[in-house]
Predict the 3D structure of the following.
Amino acid sequence: MKYPYGWSKGTKMISDCVQELILTIHRRNGGNLNSICLSSRLLDPVIGLDSLDLAEIMAAIEKRYGVSPFDSSSAPTSWFDVIQIIQSNTCRD
Amino acid sequence: MNRFDTNTWEFDNQGISRMQDRIRTYEAHSATEVFRAFDWLESGGSAVLLPPVSCNGLPRKIEIERPNQLGVWSSGTTGPPKLLLHEWDAVKRMIVIKPRYQGETWATPYRSDSFAFVHLCAHAWANLGRVVQLAGNIPAAWVKLVNGSCDSLACTPTFASLLLLEENRMTSSWMPKRITLGGEPIRESLGMRLASRFFATRFTSIYATSELGLILKSNRMDGWYESANLSKEFQDWRIIEDELQVQRSENWIATGDIVRSNARDGLIRIVGRKSSLANVAGTKVRLDEISDLALKIPGIMHATAAAEQSAVTGEIVVLKYSLTGEIAGEEVLRKLVFELQKGLPKAAWPRRWELMTTGLNSNAKAKCI
């Protein structure tokens, strides 16, 4: 797995966790990807999620990290944004 | 206009038979058909809108006792579909006719047999406008919004949120005159984002039900409504055990919605559905049905489905369960997830699973902790 340059170990762990959540649902929907491009839009057709799947992932993120990305002032449009929001909120704590 | 004592018709094997001249049925598969129904209503007749899919599941005999009624079927998610009748005059009172609304094209993803769609059509019909139906596919919806010269949009907050997620260079120039939001409470964070993106758009947030019609509307984008507006639609209103009740024709009607009131500022907000229902992206989900299904899984001792706030879909379903201990927990959860996802529509799938430990309360009765 390649990470953007400069990412800390903590951010890489967040990325891995988010990827796992996405891929679990992606495969449940019949997909066969092994990894997700982090710059992908949240509802990128290649990933094959709908709003209900997205809600499930966000609920899992909120339970694990105590962060609700969609309640931030600027909602995420890509999975990279989601990871950044989680990272910035968990570091603040 | 004649007064009818009883008007009935029966569904025959081929379709619908029209037994009375003054009652007509229309298949609500498009705004055009709904407009035709309105024309008929305006002439003094009664009209019933039929779901665009097959008529299976609808009762075979219906009665309309009063003239000039509009019949819309409930969704059937909270019991068998039932015909909900609205006085045509009452429907027209919900419509605002203004020169600046004339000829507008409205876009909406609402199902064509839903009260929300019918309400929108009534507004467009009265203002000589038209309605464009959007599919659930967001990129395709954007194409229609931009290329279809759509002036205004009526949708749920979840749909609007998904539109923002799928914005691109082509869509960024679209600035509708109006956006009307309904079907679920609007979250303040989303309201702010929508107001920021569509800075020149006039927003209206609507709270309505199939049974009661329009209950509240507001131009606020923070999820609050002016409670004074309740008095325009109903004789009186009250909050009993956090549930909003309204009075019509001397009868008190429970809305099934839990509300919070800010008496000082004269505001009210919808918090969610009463415990038996969840509102997931505008779809009503029966929580007791989910709990009942979960209890049938071997190894499950207790199971309770509950609604939880979601920033994406308004609410999601959470299933809290406890185990008998006879079967390994992982195996039980696997079976539980599989059976519920197989047996329920997608909106009703639990999105979070919470294992509870069964203990004893102070009265030595079992409880989940």
User: Anything to note?
Assistant: The interface with chain B takes residues 41-43, 45, 50-52, 54-56, 58-60, 63, 68-75, 77 of chain A (CB under 8 Å).
